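agent: user wants the structure for Response regulator transcription factor from Deinococcus sonorensis KR-87. delegating to structure tool.
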Amino acid sequence: MSAPVRVLLADDHAVVRQGLRMYLSLDPGLEVVGEAANGQEAWEQAQLLRPDVVIMDLMMPVLDGIAATRRIRSAVPETEVLALTSALEEHRVNGAIEAGAISYLLKDASSETLCEAIHAAARGEVRLHPEAARRLVREFRSPDMREHLTPREVLTLQLIAQGHSNRDIARQLEISEVTVKTHVSRLLSKLGVDSRTQAALYALKHGVARLE
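agent: tool returned. relaying tokens verbatim.
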């Protein structure tokens, strides 16, 4: 049996953290290893605990969630950040993704949706609230670079946009994960983006993949 996904909760409301603990405790594959009441604490706890996933509120005191996400992704790149917020303003959605959040969900998400998104984030898979995805695609700025991609890279990009992990892509394309990582690295470089999430947005923006 694989080890549970280690999760850090970052939200300035204790009642929200308590609710999240309760939801996550129902999934034996998840383990809450710490809590933070503001972005500064989240950054410090992430460096100390090195969780697999941080559940990050965006509107917090001392240091907001966007700034905390940027610091965490810089200091602890193996830790993924899942933005969980009540905000859908473009500047917050764009800010979280540009800072390095792999996923963006709203606080009204069901416990099943949240738990699935946490497992997905730990595997490096993207999950976006549909309206957040639409706003991100509308605002996303990137030239069309498809002519510079090989057919295999285009297919890899489609699978990334569909939320697949490197392991899933390797299985579907019948290649090694090492080869997939090489394709993904080249993709990000050719597209001029920094993350899988931004690559997925590129795919949606230019019709390589579609919003469901």
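agent: one observation worth passing along. The two ends are 33 Å apart (CA to CA).
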